[in-house]
């Protein structure tokens, strides 16, 4: 089969490799679409302790074409979305219901062969049958599963208002999820005008472009601050500024992936005195079913977020787009190995 491999940091090669055969309890999926994500760029750079060579790609949807021994509930021909997180189920973290922190953490496209290939193997338990969705929509189950975990972490109060920094693909998913999880109004901030227009069309009540007049514009909108301030940028300076936009009792959600070594200055007194909550959210935790409910009900729209569908041969270009937000007007890029 054809597969894209990171052979060493910053080197991507398209190779012909043997197609895998499913072992007991595994299924083989003919990949229909795999989303390109910031994590793929980190792996390409050799971060996340990547064991190379690696076939990346963890936002995977496709059709089961072989089932291994002992697989129940699934059959050949079924369209499935894959949960990439492979947890041992036995360690301290798994026993506490924190699969994404499994002490023997493995993940498709991160530590094991992923979806930038014609075929991928997955444990049957990680394959979720999909109804009424295209394979492209189903590829959003994983990023939306991360958003779902963020919402469960955040627990928005009914009727609250939110400020969201970042209108990339993840930001636009998070915005829509907030709006069907009790939040009444979301104000979205981003430097790219086209992304703000899209945010508006997907339900943002207000949009503000990053720039010198941003802080004043946000104060004019909510003089007492926002109940929720979330970011999907991974930019440390954005995180540093979040408390100043929060109302008393406000919740701050750090959703973007900042550089590992980055630090920010935040006033502990401010957090204390204004009853603020600072919340992180990592990966996804058995939240694919929730994400699929959102997708299958049509309450979250993902088609407008797809800017490109590319063959495996163009993965390098997709990674370049990801490294330079706004380049090629890219939002979500899907790799479609079958063309
Ligand atoms: Zn991802
Ligand atoms: Zn575990």
Task: Please outline the helices and strands.
Blueprint: E1 2-8, E2 11-16, E3 26-35, H1 38-44, E4 59-67, E5 79-82, E6 85-86, H2 92-95, E7 106-107, E8 119-123, E9 127-129, H3 135-138, H4 141-154, E10 161-165, H5 169-179, E11 185-190, H6 193-201, E12 206-209, H7 214-221, E13 226-231, H8 236-241, E14 246-254, H9 268-273, E15 277-280, H10 288-296, E16 306-310, H11 315-323, E17 332-335
Parallel strand pairs: 10-11, 10-13, 11-12, 13-14, 14-15, 16-17
Antiparallel strand pairs: 1-2, 3-4, 3-8, 3-17, 4-5, 5-9, 6-7
Helix pairs in contact: 1-11, 4-5, 4-10
Overview of the structural elements:
The protein has 339 residues and is an alpha/beta fold. The model has no long low-confidence stretch (mean pLDDT 97). Helix 1 packs across helix 11. Strands 3, 4, 5, 8, 9, 16 and 17 form a 7-stranded mixed β-sheet that branches. The protein contains 11 helices and 17 strands. Bound molecules: zinc ion (ZN) (2 copies). The site of one zinc ion (ZN) has 5 residues, from loops.
Which small-molecule species are bound to the chains here? zinc ion
At the fourth level of CATH, the homologous superfamily of the largest domain is: Medium-chain alcohol dehydrogenases, catalytic domain
Oligomer category: single chain
* C-alpha-based Rg, rounded: 20 Å
The H/E string reads EEEHEEEHEEEHHEHEHEHEHEHEHEHE
What is the CATH topology descriptor of the largest domain? Quinone Oxidoreductase, Chain A, domain 1
Task: Write down the CATH class of the largest domain.
Answer: Alpha Beta
- Structural class, judged by helices and strands? alpha/beta
Q: How does CATH name the architecture of the largest domain?
A: Alpha-Beta Complex
Give the strand tally: 17
Could you estimate the helical fraction of the residues in percent? 25-40%
- What characterizes the major β-sheet? 7 strands, mixed
- Principal-axis shape equals globular
């Amino acid at each position: 089969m054809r597969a894209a491999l990171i052979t060493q940091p910053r080197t991507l090669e398209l190779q012909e490799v043997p197609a895998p055969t499913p072992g007991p309890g595994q299924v083989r999926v003919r990949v229909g679409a795999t989303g390109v994500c910031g994590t793929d760029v980190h792996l390409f750079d050799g971060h996340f302790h990547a064991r190379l060579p690696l076939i990346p790609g963890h936002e995977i949807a496709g059709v089961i074409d072989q089932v291994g021994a002992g697989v129940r509930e699934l059959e050949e021909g079924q369209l499935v979305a894959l949960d990439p997180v492979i947890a041992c189920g036995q360690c301290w973290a798994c026993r506490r219901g924190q699969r994404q922190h499994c002490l023997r953490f493995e993940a498709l496209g991160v530590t094991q062969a992923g979806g930038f290939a014609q075929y991928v193997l997955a444990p049957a338990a990680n394959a979720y049958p999909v109804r009424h969705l295209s394979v492209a929509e189903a590829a959003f189950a994983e990023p939306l599963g991360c958003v779902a975990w963020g919402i469960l972490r955040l627990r928005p109060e009914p009727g609250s208002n939110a400020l969201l920094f970042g209108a990339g693909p993840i930001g636009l998913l998070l915005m829509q999820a907030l709006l069907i999880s009790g939040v009444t109004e979301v104000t979205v901030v981003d430097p790219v005008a086209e992304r703000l227009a899209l945010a508006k069309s997907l339900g943002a009540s207000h949009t503000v472009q990053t720039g010198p007049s941003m802080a004043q514009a946000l104060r004019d909108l909510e003089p007492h601050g926002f109940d929720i301030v979330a970011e999907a940028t991974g930019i440390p300076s954005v995180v540093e500024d979040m408390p100043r936009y929060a109302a008393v009792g406000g919740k701050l959600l750090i959703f973007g992936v900042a550089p590992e070594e980055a630090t920010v200055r935040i006033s502990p007194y401010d957090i204390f005195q204004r009853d603020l909550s600072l919340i992180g959210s990592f990966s996804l935790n058995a939240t694919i079913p929730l994400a699929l409910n959102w997708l299958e009900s049509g309450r979250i729209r993902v088609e407008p977020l797809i800017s490109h569908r590319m063959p495996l041969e163009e993965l390098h270009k997709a990674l370049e787009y990801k490294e330079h937000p706004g380049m090629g007007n890219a939002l979500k890029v899907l790799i479609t190995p079958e063309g």
